[in-house]
Structure formats: C-alpha cells, structure tokens
Design brief:
This protein is mainly alpha-helical. The chain has a domain of 78 residues. It has 5 helices and no strands. Helix 3 runs antiparallel to helix 4 and helix 4 packs antiparallel against helix 5. It is flat and about 70 Å long.
Length: 129
Amino acid sequence: MLQPSQKMERKSRNLIITLLLLGLIALGGVLIGVIFAGNPPLDYSLSILGFVIAVGVCVLAYLVNASRLYAYAFLLLAAFAGGEILSQTITAIDAFALSVILAGALILVSGLVVLVRFLRKYPVPKMEA
C-alpha cells in the first residue's frame, strides 16, 4: 500500500484546517450580516462569489505549488469586489463586466508570457519527413 510522505500529510492537514477556518469566518460574516443588517450577503453576492473563487484558486496554488496563482486569486477577488462597488456608483458603463474582463485580460497576458518563456526554453523539435 502506498503511504503519503510526512510532508504531504502535513500539507493536507494544514489545507483542511485553513479551509475549515475560512469557512467558519465566512459563515460568521454572513450570520453577523444577517443579524445586524438585515440581509447584506445578498447585497454583495458577487463579492462573495469572488471570494469563493479566489479561495478555490488559492487552494489550487497551494496544491500545485504555483505561486503566480496567488496573484491571480487576488486579481479575481479585486475584480469581483471592486467591480461590484464601482457598478453601484458608475452607471454609464457596466463597471463590473469591465473589471472582470480587465482581470481576465491580465491573466491571459501573463499566461502568454509564461507560454513564450516555456517555448523559448524548450523549443518544439523539428520532425523529419
């Protein structure tokens, strides 16, 4: 039977503890919002969705050990929360859509940079006819 290493067991345990704490903090925030302000989680539902997506990307970054994914998670959280806040004040354009499109474009450009660096380091071998 295959046994995970102690490092992987520790990493998995820390991940589970972190996710449980984040879940409890989010649940507490929603409960406090409902108790004291009526129903604010519905007022900021896109920000909550952005938070959930950012946590998912952070978990992925942790599991695959890719530090740039943490920046992507922060960018997505900022796009969702900032876009929602801006859409309440700016009515001429859809500020939420613009912020999410801008975040996606930044992620796309950084992915293209990583791809170009990879292809320069490991060029495609020529095939013989």
